## 1
Amino acid sequence: MTAPLLSPGQVIAGKYSVRAQLALSQAVATYVAQDAQGRELVVKLYDPALAQRADLMGALERATSAARQLPADVVVPVLDSGYDQATGAPFSACERMTVPSLTQLCAQGPVAADVTAAIATGLARCLDLAHNRGLFHHALKPNNVFIGPPPTYAVRIADFGAAIVRNAQPSHESYVVGAAWWAPEQIQPGAPVDATADVFAAALVLFYALTARPYWLAFQQSPPDLPAWQRELLGPRAPISHRSMEFRVPVNGGLDGIFARALAINPAERPRSVGEIAAALGTLGAAPKASESAKTMAFGEIAPYNPPPNPAAAAQALAAGSGFQAAPSGAGAGPAPAPGYPNAPRAGAYATAQPEGGQPQPGAVEASATGLPPFPLPAKKEKKNFLPILIGVGIAVVAGGVGLALLLTRTPSTDVQTATTSTSTAAASPAATSTPPPDTASGTSTGEATSSEPAPSASESASASASASASADEPDAGADAGDEEKLLTKLVCVPGPCDVVFVDGAQVKDLSKDLELTVGKHKIRVAKGGYLPQEDNITIEPGTPFEKEYKLVQAPAQPPQKKCGQFLKRCN
């Protein structure tokens, strides 16, 4: 099953009217909705199958309840939760943020050193306080870190509990959206995952603020190279001052030590709190020292920083899943009124180096890593093998070339004989092909006439071989072209029409027209609001238009019997 798909105007839980869809994944569909008072909220609908997991719903309830106990100025809490009666899906609703996420802020380029230090302080205030209460995030990324206006740049964090849903339904898209910010232990089955995983993620988020780029080289492209990322994650680390120079952004080398500890593969070697990283940024500053600045001053003298294209960030901004407010702009809460703060200082104004400091704070183990699947990549269609055809054509071309060379080097008398033979053969050929031999006597006579002609030359034999080879190749080429034939395919939902159709994992954009699918097997998924989605495998036969009708089943009107709680409204 998948998260319910709703259209504008449909109502969630009898009180939230859908205005637009922000994001969609297998486990979560995120919508902008309006309540009875006209207030805009971000509402998430989860896969109804998750409602059958009392353990998962209980863990999600505990996480959202604990986050609600944190100060309102450091967290984006869940304001309402329960079950949608029409679909049977769990839902949660939270405030729609109007300030930009860190992703949006970095769309203008790297954040200035003093602003990054303020962001680090805000991250530490929220995460360290949550850790002291036994609450861990484990899904921190720039999309769910929201930055307030200057001069304070107050930080609020969303998505507490998102990792619970992600681990319950691991998928390829969860790697693409969140893997750039995961700690090594989060992909190792059975490994304990505690507060230090958030410290690891916070260091990556702060590096992103300093450079407007993810730390991992595998995420500098879209889609990211996930096997290469895994090797990076478990391999040696480049100091952040070196890695940042690859992006033409100088960073204080004095921060290499604290970031090396925060990004350690072994959780025991990391700082026990985000506060240690914030203290280093506040005292050392993100700017390079005077000697280092002299080496990199040319970057500032050439032109203001223009960040290189970052398709990975765009892909993360468009993806959904674990973000409370994932949106096309990357804010998670939908498009913010402004992508950043125009008057905020950007990278380039650097502070003077000072001694490092900071005090560690304790953390506690929350759970063990579930062990996500090894990069479940989308299925790819089998590619056709044109090698035999190319080899045949190549042989024909070579043979023809040899024949032509021999023809050009013949003596004049031989050429005349060849021309005569070719003419007589060409004249006889149409008769032979158009009219069958009338009788045996006629065939004998023809044979005698043929035997009286001169024997074919070497060039004629080569030309004949080339023609035969080319003719032999033609049926294979035609058959291969037939495999690529596109046939009219009609997919019908009853009751219709379908709201969403996926073919081989790709969403069909225009549902008003019939599809044209190539011959072969295809994976189909159809869905309609208020009904359970269906998946199917179909086979398109050559030369035969295909039509398939999907009879949709209405989603259950009542949620299952559960224990009482924030998400589990019903009682046994």
Note: The radius of gyration is 34 Å.
## 2
Amino acid sequence: MAGLALFLGQALVYMRQLPSTLDEGNYLYKGFLFVTGVIQPFQPYGVWTNKMPFAFLIPGTAQALFGPGLLTGRLFAIFLGLITLLALWWFVRREAGDWWAAAAVGVIAVNPGVIRMYTQALSEGVVCCLLMTAVAVGVGRGRRLWHLLVASLFFAATILTRENTLPVFGLYLIYLVFEHGWKKTLLAAVPGTVLLVIVHAVYWPLIVTNIWMPWLPKALYSLFPQLPEAQAIWDPTISLTSRLYSFWQGVRYHFVLLFGFIVLLILWPNKTGWRKTSSFRTVIFLTLTTLLMTAAHAWAALWKDYCVFCFALYLNFFSILGVALVAISAPLFRLKLPAICNSLIVLAILITGAGIGFGAHQELDDTLMKLTVPRVRGMQILPGSTELWRLLANKFGYTSEQLSQIIPAAAGLLVAVLFLLLATWLFTRLKKRLPGVSWGTFTLLAFFLLGLILSPTVVFGNPPEPDCGGDVIATTEAAGRHLASLIPPGSTVFWEGGLSPAPLLYLKDIKIFGAQLNDGYSFRRGGNSDELYRFGFWNEELSARWMDEADYLLIVDYGYRQGYDSVIDLNKFEELPITGFIATCRDYSKIHTFKRIR
């Protein structure tokens, strides 16, 4: 239980440091509106329901039961994180033993990047909890029929939280065919399928339009309502270098999943390595699941343009399954490898070392580029010293921006080379004590262990998330209470409140123009205003109309400075006292309040 305590201690600290994001605020606020019946998911002229309904309804239920607020949402997220770790421990303990179960939980408990994710009220944490619980209940040895039925419901719930988990349910049913036969598989498919059908029937047909339309053949489009045509303002163009950076960020933050998968493939057990056929089938199911989900989310993030830098974020949906996979497979690894594998292992370590250095260049560039080195000219060392980047810039003509990426990548490659030399030296010293272990196995596992040890560092699993230098929950609550003191129940509110609608959780019974909750992501240029509003979008015409209808305008300070100061008619509105900072690490995050003059 030490791992759970370590996780909980860090989570309770991080939950007050991390500013709320647009997604988190919407999961909480939309979820609260849905659960309390103010509006419904996919309701025309409601809000943009851009995710599956359970993504909102699950955190919304916690808000309705324990009171709306950011504190409730984050405590509930931490509770789900603890459930996830308990499910991980239970599953690995059953399949591989106590020590491997403790190690699996420990891997999560020492990774600040993952813990921060579990601290926020995001759908990644909800999905991860549902997936790990489903696997713990319904996968592996000794599973009875009722286990399979319950797991089916959990797998279906993950789909109803985020549609990207649909393939996992299908793989689970295929696994059941081989593990339990057709009869039990058909029975197990019933609860999950029924749940999926019921929820889709309730929200038909807009659940198809909003969620599933991109995945349907175009020949079927005419059967469902079509989203209105208009130009989105969020349409980034991302370079190949940035895509590679995003990929290596994912490797850094989810080293156990991605490099652990390489370890698994290289050390894949031979036929005598499997203790029971059930263990083999379990490993195959988890291997195919993590491989398919990683490839699908790499395509969605790295190949497409909508959210290239979400790759590391997307891996949080299922990365814990990778931890479970490595933990239950590790006791079965081959320790004696043919010499032909050595070249592959060296190549994997060198590429990973350079890649991790490149993926950490934004954190390491200031330190590495400013290293002091001797001045050199014509292969001669000159008096004095200079910074490393200036030396290389003068010698090779690279720009400072290019060197900020090249130097960390080269440093990572150098560290990998030094590691290989050190590992070789250690192996020669320990070879007699490890008669059944080959050099390749020793080196590969040593590099993997090094990555685990470095998980709490900025190089691996510890992203430089902003610490707001105070209590984000307290500042959000203070702003919410301030707004509630100014805006009476029943008021119609125009919201341009920035990166998170979390402050709205503290206002009672207000009327909100729901399309505004997604800020610029739901904003469109042109288009039919009525059709846009029907699907949860907005444009300039709707913005002007709603401003005329609103009793109060809530405008974040940076929005006010970027144009709203010239739009608001002070003959119709009076400005009330401004809030404090929603998050002190975000400039201009105060919210202006304007009251209509009657």
Note: The chain is about 60% helix and 5% strand.
## 3
Amino acid sequence: MTAKKIRTGGELKAGHIRDYISNEPVRATPEEVEAVQVLSRRLVEDFGYPKSHIQTRPQHRVKKRPSDVEKSYPVDIAVFHTSKKTDSDLFMVAECKKRYRKDGAEQLKLYMDMSAAEVGVWFNGDEHEYLRKIHHKDGSRTYTPLPNIPRHGQRIEDIGLFARKDLKKPSNLKAVFRDLRNHLAGMTTGITRDEALAQEIINILFCKILDEQETDQDQTVTFRAGVGEKSEQVRERILELFERVKTATYEDVFDKNDTISLDADSLCYVVGELQNYCVMEADRDAIGDAFEVFIGPALRGAEGQFFTPRNVVKMMVEILDPKPGEKIIDPACGSGGFLIGALEHVWRQLRSQAKRRGWTEKQLFKREVEVATDCFRGIDKDSFLAKVCKAYMALVGDGRGGVFCANSLSRPEEWNPVMRDKIGLDQFDVILTNPPFGKKIVIKGEATLSQYDFGHKWTRNKETKELEKTTTLHEDQPPQILFLERCLQLLKPSGRLGIVLPEAVFGMPTYEYVVTHLQKKVKIRGIVSMPEPLFKTSGKGGTHAKTCVLFLENTPPQPEEDWDIFMADAKWCGHDSRGNPTIRKDSNGKEVLLDDIPLVTKKFKEIIGSW
């Protein structure tokens, strides 16, 4: 959270932000930034309530007791039926200050008891509860949970009864996913591991995608949870959807034994939160953010698995500059960050072509799908990550059929026939990858190591003083060294590689043979040193390993040939070792994010130009 400036004659001073509804300056407390402002924006952008119907500043107040004359309880967010904002006009109240569900729900009920509000929302920035107030003939009141809140103009009874055309593009999918993850982690019975929760949400997302794809615009969606509907009914409907997901459309992603294991109440919670949205229309960066909410905690780095930060992905993609029609692969694709970044880059070029050539939207869409399907490939030996990557590719526009669960380092003849048909050595124009590395990870076995020059020991020739490969194999090798050579094997002549590696590969005498081999076989085009906190973003998680990005061209240097090699040392990457944004004030007092990564692309193009 960054402190902004508060208005004094138009200015904002430190420690304040501007309220989304009233435009008034408010203190930038965690509750204000993470809950009140997030919920206010969602009420307007996702649920369609006019700002004129919402009151945040000054806060609407309700009585503490029926006998009170003054109204002393301040309501964080009050939503009215009309812009008159009278007490009798109050429709919905929201409590965002209480951090815990029990306390928040009790405070919310007090507000609703003392007001005309029919709907209540507790939201702490991480999870929520929606309540409806029921009046009984004897004058008593009870509260029942709602699967979601109604949109502006919608009856409470009609929550969930959306036609396909009524689904809205989500404004903050990351906040929605964070809400879901925290609820599931705290409330779900029988599933506590992050990876298991991530798998559940992926399965449910595919149900949502299928429903969006197969439902006619005027038809009611199947992915829904209605008011008063039993959670078991919702679960039964979603499980039927998932059977269609497995057998009809996404059989290349799921096994026949895959299932959704969430209990009925938890599944109903997830469906209720997602049912308003058309996730297929979400911004692609938003999908990546949302995925990382679930998948990020599931990866602890035990197998060298770390998300490559998006600014680094963008930098590497822009420098390698993949073109439409070029074949692109990530042999350690993880959740698909590089593939998605490269796909977006290529699609932007296709959109420019479409504009110049007068393509219709249908022609452009057909070409986008063709490129994703024919030109993009990914491999990961982790079945969970391979499935995540397939899901991610399906969400942004397909290409999932090119993603495989396999060991990239094993012999190609050991890959399954479908994979061998789509992936082979000497086939790819561009490779973008961040292979696994770590002190505890090694590759063993003669069958694997014997494929690689780097699987053999090297010794210095006594006469020529040059390093030469021997016939003796190492007992084991770090995976990043073998991945580097496998990438060279996958590249076409003149193909381009961008790879994240430990900086030790280029600084320790142990790996001198690697540098010597590269200098003879390829043209090194650039080496960019990365800041130490790059992969250290979660306190105890992540790694402090100093990394760099190597750019090379699969072209053997000619004798006496000279070419420019780009060298850069990025001091800042946009976050510190705890994952907090590195924000400082410049000489003019303006807050800026310290991030050298975007500058690397600009300097590379200035110095090296295009490939």
Note: The CA atoms of residues 22 and 57 lie 6 Å apart.
